[in-house]
Amino acid sequence: MATAALSKEPQIGLTPHVPSPSDKAAFDAAIVDPDSYAHEERYHAIFKYLRAEAPVYWCEPEGYRPFWTVSRHADIRRVEFDNETFLNDPRLTLATIADEERIMALTGGNKLTRNLVSMDNPDHKHFRGMTQNYFSPKHMKQLEEDIHTLARDSVDHMAALGDRCDFAAEVAIWFPLRVIMLTLGVPREDEQFLMKITQEVFGAQDFDHMRPEEMGGLFATIAEFNAWCDRITADRKANPREDVSTIIANATLTDGSPMGNMEAMSYYLIIAAAGHDTTSSSSSAGLLELIRNPAEMQKLRNDPSLLPNAVEEMIRWASPVKHFFRTAAVDTEVAGVPIKAGDGLVMAYPSANRDAAVFDDPFAFRVDRANVRQHLAFDMARICAWASTSPNWRCVSCLKNCSPASTISSSPVTPPGPAPASSAA
């Protein structure tokens, strides 16, 4: 029986450019270095060491407020699900002190947007409930044929390109965006604009997508997106339809007052965030692993019913959301390590998804992995159901429209760079 190809497990001391933990300043700098997230061997060498030796690790990188790095699956799950002890709002993602101060100076607060993943209850529960019925499996079933049509169009486009296709650029980034636009009810002519906005938001420090001045460029992107949201909101107030934009435009807050401009813009943005970047990263990385592992590709061709499970494995493997923060509301402990009220904790999702205590042979890609749904590829406790499942059904819809006799090569390949991955946040 064919077995999954084993991925080489990175090791401190064997993986290049990974500093020794004995050099704390250099090791801490590596934890926040974007290069560690772009090069998977480096990232996994660091976090494999932390899982074994310091699963709750005090990190003090220069230029950042210090924080605890939580690297084990069980501990991340515990922090994630205890939403009375660990809060979203004070600090959601990793940012330099300089960037935090600039955001405070320009907004008077600690964030550029206020959306579901940055909220705590009761607001989180209320905002989640606004669109929960729309994104329920029952309602999404009504959109299934439209989504399959978009998927078939994507696969047809890929086939029309002949024997070579940049799947990430030609298919993976466009298909989820078009599904999002379907749910929002926005016109196809807005496609290029929305693609630019999502790439600039997620690539604020990516030289391929960033505007000048990094954080200043991100402010400009948010302002441009906000103007687009205002136009959509005004239209849906005057001309309501059966779409998510209408729900957002006419929503009210917990006190019954209309949703404000910032909350509405943030809601539009999190819908794009929940399905676009995550789905494109997972599907690109997943297809790459199928090509690298021809035995796994053959399993899917032999048994297409494995596809939903295979997509979960793609999501585990890619871990498109690299981290979120929590802040301790009270003095507590994690894995026996005392945590003070006000301390920040980073939940390292890719590390959780390579934890050998949960996943057998975690550095192997297996489309039939039995317990793959235990992955922590998203903020499962806080983010609403559509956000945590949307990459799954989008990937399934696209891949199921590929013929079992697809001409995609199943020969092992060694790409010139790392597998596609989301930003560190």
UniProtKB/TrEMBL annotation:
SUPFAM superfamilies: Cytochrome P450 (SSF48264). It comes from the Bacteria. Keywords: Oxidoreductase. It holds the Pfam family p450. One of its GO terms (biological process) is cholesterol catabolic process. Its EC number is 1.14.-.-. Residues 1-20, 405-425 are annotated as: Disordered. InterPro entries: Cyt_P450 (IPR001128), Cyt_P450_B (IPR002397), Cyt_P450_sf (IPR036396). GO terms for molecular function: cholest-4-en-3-one 26-monooxygenase activity; heme binding; iron ion binding; steroid hydroxylase activity. Belongs to the cytochrome P450 family. This is Cytochrome P450-terp.
